[in-house]
Design goal:
With 76 residues, this protein is mainly alpha-helical. The chain has five helices and two strands, in the order βαααααβ.
Length: 76
């Protein structure tokens, strides 16, 4: 029998839900400002969400912050 594989933590820390709460912005408002589909935004609610750079830039611009304020690279 094989030993279970150890789960590695996500490569990034997703601060998007926290920032939306801090700025008082709903997910619907973020959708309106970014013109991103709701299904894509729904995937970004999980802690380890790691979007493509173009998506990350659109979201950061809608919040008025740099990309690095929303997604932090986890140090190994």
């Amino acid at each position: 029998m094989l030993a279970p594989m150890a789960r590695r933590p996500p490569a990034v820390v997703n601060r998007l839900p926290t920032l939306l709460g801090r700025y008082g912005m709903s997910w619907g408002e973020l959708e309106r400002r970014t013109l991103l589909p709701p299904r894509l935004l729904a995937r970004l609610r999980v802690p380890g969400a790691n979007p493509r750079l173009a998506v990350a830039e659109r979201i950061a611009a809608a919040l008025g912050v740099p990309v690095e304020a929303v997604w932090l690279r986890r140090r190994s």
